[in-house]
Amino acid sequence: MHGDSRRRLDLPDFRGREIEAAGPIAERIAPVWIPAPVIGAEANAEPGHGLAPLEASSQSALAQQDALIESGFKNVVCMTLYNEPLELLRTSLSALLVSIDAQRTSAPGMAARSCIVIIADGRDRAHAEILRFFRHAGLIDTGRSFSALGETVHLSRQRINNIMASLGVDGELTGEVSFAICIKNQNRGKLHSHALFFQWICPALVPDLVYQLDAGTVVEAGAVSKLVAYMADEPDVAAAASRILTPTPGGGASTLSVWQYMDFVMQKAVTWPTEVASGYLSVIPGQFCVFRWSAVSAPSSEAGGERPLDAYLRGLNAVAPLERVMFLAEDRVFGNEIVLARDKSWRIGYCPEAEATTDACDTFGELLRQRRRWQNSALAVRLWLWGHVPAYLSRRDKGVFDKARFSASMAWQGLLTASEVMSPAFVVLLLLAAAGGLIHSKNAAEAAVVGGMVVATGGLAWLTVANRTSRWQFWLSVARDAAATLSVVSLLGLALYSNPFNQAALLIAPVILMALVIAASMPGQRWAAPRHLPLYLLTDRLISFALYGYALANVHNVTWGTKGLTDDAGDHAGEKRRMRRLRNIVAGSIVAVDAGLIAIGLNRPGVFIKSESSVIEAFTLLFLVVAGVAAATWAASALRSLPTLGRALFALFPRNRGREAPAARPVAIIGATRPV
């Protein structure tokens, strides 16, 4: 949620070498920090400044840990801010501190030294209350610091209890955490903040795992520990996504909230597991994810070879129109560079046990701007990636298995893209076929009842599209959900009654399959998600149609305009003309495809429309294929977990307890039940 930047930057090259400097950082910022050299480091504080007041015993304990901190951090978490209010930072930071502190009890033998890096993108854009919090907590202006990219990075070590108290959050947490705070002098874009973090701060902190966390995302208490365990168990995983959902809708939730929640549920239950099985997770969500520092910072063995990190940060100087659209979702680009990296077959993983809740868009306008960035960048990344398929298949550093896996993942991405591109045409044909089926129905009474319930659902969904404080909101939402459930049940019953069994089965199978997949793969959401599934099924195509149309009409728009942000990058007229030309090519091609499909469906009924329900059949067929692949993926994953479950049960109930060593059983249990 950051302002976009178009200024060109020449970044320093850190591949395979240390940064030159006047002296080691440890000589200037105390032994709490790693003795790695940093350009332009400054000492601007007296010893002890910037630390929360501690008792003598606590100071002694911290001093004893200084030597350990010099060897590096286990976790370094990056949070970037633009104009978010303090409340968003409070909820995210307090939950993160709880999750970091939980490592002491959940994994006592695990190295858990952590540092939280917060970068505010522009002093004049940062919320005044956040700046006051930084000062009150002693995170800036009173501690040690060093310079990077012309900005000042403030370093300090704090007790978690003190930070929680400064945030106004109750809690009895006894751990410590380090902070690196940077308030940039002016807004220079989110990617510039990532360059500051990855190219300057991380080499100084020497982390093992690097996280990204959005302000507004709340991680559950065990999320950090679970990601640490997951990365330890999967040494070939370079980055991993967590399971991120919007808040679970309550009884009076708006249609907008329900749709966003279900859209995230469908992604986590269907799309992501299938992508992981195909070998390529198309997005590493910046809302909450983890990277293995050794993977993203390792240089290629080729002369002049780039690290994945270097290729990712080329977006700062991106001038090609397609690249500018790609970097609207820089997390997708980062994943591409990791998968395409030479000399190592890295994977992108998914750890559904690590859960987080992110904030949803409050208005339809915000949702339009958010999905415009997401959808356009996803399409641009796929186009760019398909252009690299021939070169990938001819590479000598990739084996047959890597190439087969990459080809399968590209085929799956093609299937998803085809469903997106053809969706507008199918929506139009679906509405025409549904209207014709109701008008010319053999049983007018049945058609009137079903049509009336569908119309009622649409009207109630429109009345409750946004959250309102009206006393009628709750009851209108309840009536909407009831009408949606009755509509779906009636449509399924009508399909069974009015069509041959094979046609009816094709209509019903996707709904049942989706409910089963969600129930099996989404623990904790097994009641909420199926409950809202009928409303999602009835409204998804129409909402997606509006979002997709808006995205296509604004392919040329490369601003980060989600929550009131504006384009202040000062683009030249020539660049804007090039972006509009790209918009005309991409949007024009997709509109032409959909117009052709609609024309074929209307003029040649034998192709799409053999009966009133055949358009619905054609529309659900592609969805059924996607759902079927997802179900097969989940089933295969469940079967692979059976041996682990068997070993765990065997360890719990050994045949001969007398012959077993006393310490062997706990080790066996832990090893058998570790998340995979």
Structural summary, described in words:
It is built from 24 helices and 11 strands. Mean pLDDT is 74; it is low at 1-71, 606-620 and 651-676. An 11-stranded mixed β-sheet has the order 1-4-5-6-3-2-7-10-9-11-8, with helices on both faces. The two termini are 32 Å apart. The longest helix has 40 residues, at 400-439. Among the domains are: 26-216, no CATH class; 410-622, no CATH class. It has 676 residues and is an alpha/beta fold. Strand 4 and strand 5 (151-159) form a beta hairpin. 44% of the residues are buried. Helix 23 runs antiparallel to helix 24.
Taking all Cα atoms into account, the compactness measure Rg is: 27 Å
The number of helical elements comes to 24
Mean pLDDT: 74
For the largest beta-sheet, the strand count, sense and barrel status come to: 11 strands, mixed
State the distance separating the first and last CA atoms. Answer: 32 Å
**Helicity range of the residues?**
55-70%
Structural class: alpha/beta
Principal-axes shape call: globular
Percent range for β-strand residues:
5-15%
State the total count of DSSP E strands. 11
List segments where confidence is low: pLDDT < 50 over at least 5 consecutive residues. 1-71, 606-620, 651-676
What spatial order of strands do you see in the largest sheet?
A: 1-4-5-6-3-2-7-10-9-11-8
List the helices and strands and how they pair.
Blueprint: H1 26-29, E1 41-42, H2 56-69, E2 73-81, H3 86-101, H4 103-106, E3 114-120, H5 128-136, E4 144-148, E5 151-159, H6 160-167, E6 176-183, H7 190-205, E7 207-214, E8 218-219, H8 223-233, E9 237-245, H9 255-278, E10 288-292, H10 293-296, H11 308-312, H12 321-326, H13 330-339, E11 347-357, H14 364-387, H15 389-393, H16 400-439, H17 444-463, H18 473-498, H19 501-521, H20 528-553, H21 573-603, H22 605-608, H23 614-652, H24 664-673
Parallel strand pairs: 2-3, 2-7, 3-6, 9-11
Antiparallel strand pairs: 1-4, 4-5, 5-6, 7-10, 8-11, 9-10
Helix pairs in contact: 3-6, 9-19, 9-20, 9-23, 14-16, 14-20, 16-20, 16-21, 16-23, 17-18, 18-19, 18-20, 19-20, 19-23, 23-24
